From TrEMBL, chain A:
GO annotation, biological process: ATP synthesis coupled electron transport
Stored PANTHER family: NADH DEHYDROGENASE
Top-rank lineage group of the source organism: Bacteria
A GO term for molecular function: NADH dehydrogenase (quinone) (non-electrogenic) activity
Protein name according to UniProt: NADH-quinone oxidoreductase subunit N
Organism placement in taxonomy: Bacteria, Pseudomonadati, Verrucomicrobiota, Opitutia, Opitutales
InterPro entries xrefs: NADH-Q_OxRdtase_suN/2, ND/Mrp_TM
Physiological role: NDH-1 shuttles electrons from NADH, via FMN and iron-sulfur (Fe-S) centers, to quinones in the respiratory chain. The immediate electron acceptor for the enzyme in this species is believed to be ubiquinone. Couples the redox reaction to proton translocation (for every two electrons transferred, four hydrogen ions are translocated across the cytoplasmic membrane), and thus conserves the redox energy in a proton gradient.
Keyword terms: Cell membrane, Membrane, NAD, Quinone, Translocase, Transmembrane, Transmembrane helix, Transport, Ubiquinone
UniProtKB/TrEMBL annotation, chain B:
Catalytic activity: a quinone + NADH + 5 H(+)(in) = a quinol + NAD(+) + 4 H(+)(out)
Lineage: Bacteria, Pseudomonadati, Verrucomicrobiota, Opitutia, Opitutales
Record flagged with keyword Cell membrane: yes
Keywords: Cell membrane, Membrane, NAD, Quinone, Transmembrane, Transmembrane helix
Membrane topology per record: Multi-pass membrane protein
Protein name: NADH-quinone oxidoreductase subunit J
Native source species: Cephaloticoccus capnophilus
Domain of life the protein comes from: Bacteria
Compartment(s): Cell membrane
Length: 558, 188
């Protein structure tokens, strides 16, 4: 192989175009190196390095976004293919990049809280979170099945580990095993679909055959030339099934409740937001580029899936008492709303913006809720993180008014209550569905909203009006003498001069002295900034509900 | 000649795959899996994908299955109680098998492709040099990402299996209470 040929092929490997991803990878390595180099006493600083690094990256990414929308930095690659067509840098990709970076940043913040209360290895958690974040960002820009599959597998392997990270908890290990098996099945389906598409598009006897059938553009050309190929249809359906596992759409949602419950709360948040958004990013890319000529097949499949997902997610969430299962199954219904948006986007591409806006709102509201859950989760017992019941939230408004407010704002936004961002997201999706004349699906979705208000407000009712004392009778924990909300309140309020800490705190200290040694030390330094961050999230939920401004224009104009 | 060989290899692959799934003895199952892989490697040779065949035997048969056998012998698993189908799982099995047969039939009838004239078959997968070239130019980025995948997997092994007693600021007494069952299991 001559030098020139090598040079030409390597020429399109523009590492500058994926600088944020490369930096995330380097940051992940840096954390591991720091753990080796720094003395034990300084290990507490490593998560701070992770969070600070991601914050700086996020700021730089946003800055390179805003500056003159092009000329400098990453903007210069917009609309071009790099890495021999493996990546295509689009506007949607840029949005998803910021989205995933913000997600991994927030997961790291929650991870500090959650791991601070347990005796578990810390640095590896942040390192894996960063690797997943980088892979998610690459996934959102992939333009080639090889890139897509490799990035998706990196994400999935990272999640296998994170889900079973609380390995002393049997529920966490069970969740890890279930996620491993269903994840392997979904990867298998996806891979089988890809192979069928690659094989059939490489058949020289068919018109428009290509020897690069993994590339979305080439595949689209082939599919356009062969509009009714059976093997290609089969491949498309299999690929869609594999993606639907990630987003938790109806027949493929089977893993959601158990895995969401067993996984550590920050990881549940990562799964609910990051993994789901990744599924939708891939879905949007696929149906708008590679599978566009087969819209006649894709639209009915996705329509049926959306309707079933909406119905199932909302009905299944009605009966849940464990908050993590509840939020997992309500996440299934959110996947239904998003699928509705994807179907609408196949009729007019403006709906892509609506889907992205919905995802953004879902990110803010979900992390507000998950943040409160993480702060309130107990750490006294191996399974405590997985057993968070609705009753545990009884009387939260009295013990922790600020967290209760954040929780109510987050849940209200998830339910779609008018002044909040979740309402605007649903409204945009409904408008685009209406314009696409999807009246049947729209009716199902509106009914879904009504049902979802019921179960979200069951939670809100527990937090606002429940009596702290009544909960202790039903709390299933082994040594929970007092309601958990109050206990955790003491944990959160362990810092000086925040709330007038009630007598709970003393009782708590007597109750679980072991835990308090490890827990409150971290709690003191960590809880205030995290509460500030949660307050910011809640403020953003309210703010973007009232005023979409430049972001709304940018998303919805196309 | 080629067709006969293909039939032979394909039959062996199917039979050994069935054996791997159905065998109640874990060691037998692993060995059946090994033979299934060798048969598939034979099919790759018939397709002139020599490199794939060699890699399959080296990586899977050589390393992965050997590892399986080590672990099975280490854990001293003798007889796994046979899986009993009853009630809903039998029904699900029948439905699944029916769907599978329907799918295979559909592909065999509707998705059939004409066989290519020999000259048109692209000679892919025979050449180590072509693979290496593609890996270091076209697919450089996925190879790098793969490196991070393996890193994450390695971290996972450490996190999920290592005893965490020497975790710095941890008070020595409390973690032992929670982690004892896990560490004991690991020590076995």
């Amino acid at each position: 192989m001559s030098f020139e040929l090598l040079h030409a092929a390597a020429d399109s490997n523009r590492w500058a175009a994926i600088l944020p991803e490369v930096s995330l990878g380097c940051l992940a390595l840096l954390l591991l190196v720091l753990e080796m180099v720094l003395p034990r006493a300084a290990h507490r600083a490593i998560p701070v390095v992770a969070i600070a690094g991601q914050t700086v990256l996020l700021a730089l990414l946003l800055a390179s976004f805003c500056c003159a929308s092009g000329a400098c930095g990453i903007g210069a690659y917009l609309g071009t293919e790099t890495f021999n067509g493996l990546l295509l840098h689009t506007r949607d990709g840029q949005f998803m990049r910021v989205f995933f970076l913000l997600t991994s940043l927030l997961v790291s913040v929650l991870g500090v809280v959650s791991l601070g209360r347990r005796q578990l290895p810390r640095v590896e958690f942040f390192s894996i979170v960063l690797v997943i974040g980088g892979a998610l960002m690459l996934l959102a820009q992939s333009n080639h099945f090889v890139m897509l599959f490799v990035a998706l597998e990196t994400v999935t392997v990272g999640f296998y580990i994170l889900v079973s990270y609380f390995r002393t908890s049997a529920l966490s290990l069970e969740a890890g095993l279930k996620y491993l098996i269903t994840g392997a099945l979904s990867s298998g389906l996806l891979l089988f679909g890809i192979v069928l598409l690659y094989g059939v598009s490489g058949n020289p006897l068919l018109i428009g055959s290509t020897d690069n059938g993994m590339h979305f553009g080439e595949l689209r050309g082939f599919l356009a030339a062969n509009p009714d190929n059976f093997l290609a249809s089969l491949g498309i359906v299999l690929v869609l099934s594999g993606v639907c596992f990630k987003i938790g759409a109806f027949p493929f949602q089977i893993w959601v409740p158990d895995v969401y419950q067993g996984a550590p709360t920050p990881v549940t948040a990562y799964l609910a937001v990051g993994s789901k958004a990744a599924g939708f990013a891939i879905l949007l890319i696929l149906v708008h580029t590679a599978f566009a000529p087969y819209a006649g097949l894709v639209i009915p499949v996705l329509t049926v899936l959306a309707a079933l997902t909406l119905v199932f997610g909302n009905l299944a969430a009605l009966t849940q008492h464990n908050v993590k299962r509840l939020i997992g199954l309500s996440g299934v219904s959110h996947a239904g709303f998003l699928l509705l948006g994807v179907v609408a986007s196949l009729h007019s591409t403006a709906a892509i913006g609506a889907v992205q806006f919905y995802l953004g709102g879902y990110l803010l509201a979900s992390f507000a809720v998950f943040g409160v859950m993480t702060l309130l989760a107990r750490a006294d017992g191996a399974d405590a993180d997985a057993i968070q019941e609705l009753d545990d939230y009884a009387g939260l408004a009295k013990t922790q008014p600020f967290l209760a407010l954040v929780l109510v704002i987050g849940l209200g936004s998830l339910a779609g209550i008018p002044p909040l961002v979740g309402f605007m997201g649903k409204l945009f999706i409904f408008i685009s569905a209406f314009q696409a004349e999807l009246y049947g699906l729209l009716a199902v979705a509106v009914l879904g909203v009504v049902v979802s208000i019921y179960y979200y407000f069951g939670w809100v009712r527990a937090a606002l009006f429940g009596e702290p004392d009544g909960a202790s009778k039903t709390a299933s924990a082994d040594r929970a003498a007092a309601p958990v909300a109050a206990k955790a309140a003491a944990l959160v309020a362990a810092e000086p001069a925040s709330q007038p800490a009630p007598s709970w705190s003393i009782e708590f200290e007597e109750d679980t002295p072991l835990q308090n040694k490890g827990g409150s030390a971290a709690g003191v330094c960590v809880c205030t900034p995290v509460k500030w961050a949660l307050g910011l999230l809640a403020a953003a939920v309210v703010f973007f509900g009232f005023y979409q401004g430049a972001l709304g224009d940018w998303l919805l104009s196309r | 000649m080629l067709d006969t060989l293909f039939t032979v290899f394909a039959t062996f692959a199917l039979l050994f795959a069935l054996g791997a799934v159905l065998s109640p003895n874990a060691i037998n199952a692993a060995l059946c899996f090994l033979l299934c892989l060798v048969s598939v490697a034979g099919i790759f040779v018939l397709l002139e994908a020599y490199l794939l065949a060699v890699l399959l035997v080296l990586v899977y048969a050589g390393a992965v299955v050997a590892l399986f056998l080590f672990i099975i012998m280490l854990l001293d698993l003798k007889q796994v109680s046979a899986w009993k189908f009853r009630g809903i799982s039998a029904l699900a099995g029948v439905v699944g098998a029916g769907l599978l047969v329907a799918g295979v039939l559909a592909v065999a009838t509707r998705g059939q492709l004409d066989s290519l004239p020999a000259a048109m078959i692209p000679a892919l997968g025979a050449d180590l040099k072509a693979y290496a070239h593609a890996l270091f130019t076209t697919y450089l980025l996925p190879v790098q990402v793969m490196g991070f995948l393996l890193l994450a997997a390695m971290l996972g092994v450490i996190v999920l299996s290592k005893k965490f007693i020497a975790q710095g600021e941890a008070p020595a007494a409390s973690p032992a209470l929670d982690s004892q069952p896990a560490t004991q299991a690991a020590q076995k």
